[in-house]
């Protein structure tokens, strides 16, 4: 088939099928062969531009800027497993499009959440492994690890607890390791003051600025990566904190406006906004725009809405930290 004709067919298919499950036809086109895959991936836009999740790589790309992607998490208490779905409708009862799964494991005094693309294969040795979340003894400090380097030249963590014990690799060129991309901490509430948990997140977020033609040309011609250049050009530091709630006199409780996306009061509910990064002179925070909100709508169902600069993988990992009892923080 002529490349022009193939491109026109996929372009029309891409524009006509903007929701799952019909969107699986776009993915099917990319699975035909390498040429079809290259054409399809060249036409399908990233979530930051299209507001849609299409390929697995979209899960590690920033979400849309103008409106959040609405997802939900289902919890299975029996096997300590959590499933992330993309919401297909505005209700909380739809089946959703499966995105990621995570399982909680105990390693002595520490807890780990293994995150995978396969709901039935949750191990670091799996080809579906995408990253993990590791907590400290008290469950108040967490570290997010990505299975892929966040920028060229990044080095995997050297600690034994964070190594990927795997014999299989997706590609020989892809390092088999865990790369630290963020930390989440919960502040102690020693005075037992009333209010929700207080969170602070420090993350490495992918760049959302599109490259110019000159930059793309320079990327092809230049083969001199340095850790500093790559970390500043392809990733950015981001500090998030939980949005302060307001005391509701009539209800006699702390309240946040979730715009109907949260229906059950819970200490797990939170909203994250941009804070000032102390390492960046002149940095400004935005305490009005909610970048990630998480809240309870049923016994084991929670909503998760995120936007730029967070990816679905990062947002899911942050929400996983909310599960579990934190006696010193409540």
TrEMBL record:
Residues 149-169, 205-237 are annotated as: Disordered. InterPro entries: Tubby-like_C, Tubby_C, Tubby_C_CS. Pfam families: Tub (PF01167). Residues 59-325 form the Tubby C-terminal domain. Residues 210-224 have a biased composition (Basic and acidic residues). PANTHER family: TUBBY-LIKE F-BOX PROTEIN 7, TUBBY-RELATED. Belongs to the TUB family. This is Tubby-like F-box protein.
């Amino acid at each position: 088939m002529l490349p022009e004709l193939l491109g026109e067919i996929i372009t029309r298919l891409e524009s006509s099928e903007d929701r799952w499950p019909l969107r699986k036809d776009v993915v099917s086109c990319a699975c035909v062969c390498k040429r079809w895959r290259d054409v399809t991936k060249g036409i399908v836009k990233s979530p930051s531009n299209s507001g849609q999740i299409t390929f697995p790589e979209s899960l590690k790309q920033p979400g849309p800027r103008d409106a959040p992607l609405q997802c939900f998490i289902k919890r299975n208490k029996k096997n300590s497993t959590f499933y992330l779905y993309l919401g297909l409708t505005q209700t909380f009862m739809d089946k959703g499009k499966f995105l990621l799964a995570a399982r909680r494991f105990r390693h002595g005094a520490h807890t780990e959440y293994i995150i995978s693309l396969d709901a039935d294969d949750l191990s670091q040795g799996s080809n579906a492994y995408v990253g993990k979340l590791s907590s400290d003894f008290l469950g108040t400090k967490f570290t997010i690890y990505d299975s892929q380097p966040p920028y060229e030249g990044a080095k995997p963590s050297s600690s034994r607890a964070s190594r990927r014990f795997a014999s299989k690799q997706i590609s020989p060129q892809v390092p088999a390791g865990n790369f630290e991309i963020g930390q989440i901490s919960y502040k102690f509430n020693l005075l037992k003051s009333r209010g929700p948990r207080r969170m602070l997140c420090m993350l490495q977020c992918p760049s959302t600025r599109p490259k110019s033609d000159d930059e793309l040309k320079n990327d092809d011609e230049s083969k001199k990566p340095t850790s500093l250049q790559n970390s500043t050009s392809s990733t950015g530091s981001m500090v998030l904190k939980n949005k302060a709630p307001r005391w509701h006199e009539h209800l006699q409780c702390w309240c946040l406006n979730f715009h109907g996306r949260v229906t059950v009061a819970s200490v797990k509910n939170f909203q994250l906004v941009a804070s000032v990064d102390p390492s960046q002179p002149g940095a400004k925070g935005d305490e009005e725009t909610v970048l990630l909100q998480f809240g309870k709508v049923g016994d084991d169902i929670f909503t998760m809405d995120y936007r730029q600069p967070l990816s679905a993988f990062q947002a899911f990992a942050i929400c996983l930290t909310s599960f579990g009892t934190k006696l010193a923080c409540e």
